[in-house]
């Protein structure tokens, strides 16, 4: 929404002349509030990734920087209702926001850096390499002691 609302504000006259009723020209204040609301929602969304265990808690911290930039631009867009270059600022913040957040989420994937460290140092963890000393069970289809096939 921040991306589309900022973009629609910059070409609101074209929408109006074409007969499309867009929030950008019918109600610019609401257009800016919608962009601001969805910019604010990015904070709890990124925190939810960490809370759910998809990413580590560093993601909640580092994503706050890019979320803060988009929120700052959304506040400017709301305050100036798109004037003074605020629509363009929010547009470009929203263009960069998603790729940066996705790269941060990949970099903060839960357990990723522990695996990288183990691979670099060569410590694969002894518990992963423990073997069972028990004899393997008979293969499927071979006879058992009773003479019938095992399942």
Automatic annotation (TrEMBL):
One of its GO terms (molecular function) is protoheme IX farnesyltransferase activity. The keyword Methyltransferase does not apply. The chain crosses the membrane at residues 40-70, 90-108. It is a multi-pass membrane protein. Keywords: Membrane, Transferase, Transmembrane, Transmembrane helix. Residues 127-151 are annotated as: Disordered. It is found in: Membrane. It comes from the Eukaryota. It holds the Pfam family UbiA. Residues 127-138 have a biased composition (Acidic residues). The keyword Membrane applies. Converts protoheme IX and farnesyl diphosphate to heme O. PANTHER family: PROTOHEME IX FARNESYLTRANSFERASE, MITOCHONDRIAL. This is Heme O synthase. It comes from Cryomyces antarcticus. The gene is COX10_2.
């Amino acid at each position: 929404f921040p991306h589309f609302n900022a973009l629609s504000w910059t070409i609101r006259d074209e929408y109006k002349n074409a007969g499309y009723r867009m929030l950008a020209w019918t109600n610019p204040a609401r257009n800016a509030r919608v962009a601001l609301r969805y910019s604010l929602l990015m904070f709890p969304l990124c925190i939810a990734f960490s809370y759910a265990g998809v990413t580590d808690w560093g993601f909640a911290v580092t994503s706050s920087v890019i979320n803060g930039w988009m929120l700052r631009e959304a506040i400017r867009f709301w305050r100036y209702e798109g004037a003074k270059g605020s629509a363009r600022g929010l547009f470009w913040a929203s263009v960069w926001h998603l790729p940066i957040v996705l790269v941060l989420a990949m970099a903060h994937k839960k357990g990723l850096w522990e695996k990288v460290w183990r691979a670099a140092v060569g410590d694969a963890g002894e518990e992963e390499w423990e073997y069972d000393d028990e004899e393997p069970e008979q293969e499927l289809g071979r006879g058992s002691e009773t003479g019938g096939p095992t399942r």
